[in-house]
Write a structure and sequence with these properties.
With about 425 residues, the protein is α/β, with parallel strands linked by helices. About 50% of the residues lie in helices and about 10% in strands. A six-stranded mixed β-sheet has the order 3-6-5-4-7-8, with helices on both faces. Strands 1-2 form a two-stranded parallel ribbon. The model is unreliable at about 1-40 (pLDDT under 50). The chain binds zinc ion.
Amino acid sequence: MVVINSQYFPPILEFIEFALQISLSDLHHRCDVSIVAPQRKPNLKPPELVASSESLDALTKRLAARGRIAFDTEAASFHRYIDRVYLVQVCSDSDIALVDPLAVQDLSPLGDLLADSNIEVVFHDADYDLRTLNRDYGFVATNVFDTRIAAQLAGEDSVGLGALLDKYFKVTANKKMQRADWSRRPLTEEMVSYAADDTRYLLPLRDRLSKLLKSVGRMEWAEEEFSLLEGIRWTQSAKDEQAFLRIKGAKALPRRALAVLRELHSWREKTASSLDRAPFRVVGNSALIALAKETPSNLETMQDTDGIPASVVKRYGNELVKAIKKGLKVAPNDRPSVTRSKRPLADHAYDRRLAKLKTLRNETALEHKMDSGLLCPNGTLQAIARAAPINSVQLLKVSELRRWQRGVLGDANILSAIRNDD
Ligand SMILES: [Zn+2]
């Protein structure tokens, strides 16, 4: 990425434009030029790399004194099988630090910051970060501000961090880094600067969005959403026996090939897990499908199968042949099949309640110039239609429904929408 200090920016660009005879907007599209406006860039020290308990202690003491911090984490799911936190970025109005969880054994000082209700912690899209921090370290947070939720409720069209930073601070994120391998050490210079930039603008962004929310009278909505983030905990999802059916192309396979695919997929999960490598880095999905279709019985025929890289044959060929044989031995009746999910029994009264709730929601969203899914997601409407409350007390028991949503939609409107279900 080329970074040009904006103080020199106009003359340099004009010169490039003149020299190349292309327009400025064209130039923006052709090169990855990022304009850094110095008057807007938060005035922070260069990022500090924290790799010992002593420096983490010193850092968290300084951060606690500032009253608010920005938080972010990086994982490596594009590279690794085991999902875990590989980097924690923290940032105050004066400090920015990258904490290395591979080097620091005890991260509890960070957990104390998160749990301290006197310190506001700012995330962009807190849900994932809080879930993984809870899973890996047992951390829980209080006093959270989520810039993604704030942007949504403030009516921003694009709520991705990249889009918001571009809009408010004219910085362009280095997209290439989103798939970087954060489990590698040492981190490259490019990774360090990307990781720092990911949190560098969060506090100023928080201030801009908070102002915006207040000006449209929606700060209370945001506060309700933020307080719900405090309840986020990691929950183990059940092992999915049908995962192999979701591989692209699986549903078109005959049952005999599906039995082979199931074996191949299960072998790949085991192998990826023991290598701690993302499954597609072991054998890609299209290669698994090709193997399930062609069922090569030895390395020579596997080599001749379209779509199987030579490196895969060389490294895993024998194990793949074994898995294929195992799949072919499955008795016809035990072969998996693609079952189409049966339609649930028709419940016309429920359908009518849901339809009326949708109409109410859509009309109200239009009035408030809001995205209807943001005002009230379909899942929440379904929960109301299912519960079929007949008064406010019962409506209050629909846990999916937020206080602010009830305020906007109106209890009376919701109740009358479901009452008139004849
Ligand atoms: Zn990040």
